[in-house]
Amino acid sequence: MARKRKKGNRKKKKPEILTDRKGPFYFRTVFMNGKQVREKVRGFVVVDSKPVDRDEFLRANATEMDLMALGEYELLHELECERNQEWEATDEPAGKSKPKQKPIADDDSDLPF
Questions:
Q1: Is residue 21 part of a domain?
Q2: Cβ-based burial of 93 (10 A; exposed 0-12, middle 13-18, buried ≥19)
Q3: Residue span of the structural domain in which 45 resides
Q4: Residue 28's CB: how many other CB atoms inside 10 A?
Q5: Does 101 map to a domain?
Q6: Which of 57, 64, 85, 95 is the most buried (most CB within 10 A)?
Q7: Tally of structural domains, the chain
Q8: How many angstroms separate the CA atoms of 48 and 111, rounded?
Q9: 27-76, pLDDT tens digit by residue?
């Protein structure tokens, strides 16, 4: 008698990336109005032949200058807000103050040349 395969052991098929005049896309199967429909998914970045969400990719890898050049001002604002929250979380309470560093002398008396 043949052994039956378990359904959980099947590997998920990697989406095939196609292109047309508007750019790269892949098909995703969804249900609309009780019917199964294939829809085109755009707006992703291809990394190592795997589609990655564009916003996630930019959030992880882009600098502030890249975001400004691409016009992603909303994402830039979100990153600045996150950075400010991290900075406020690491800030020490008002009662404790950090020791001040010595100011650097501007005189050139100790220079060897």
A1: yes
A2: exposed
A3: 15-84
A4: 11
A5: no
A6: 57
A7: 1
A8: 53
A9: 889 999 999 999 988 877 777 777 777 788 888 888 888 888 888 888 88
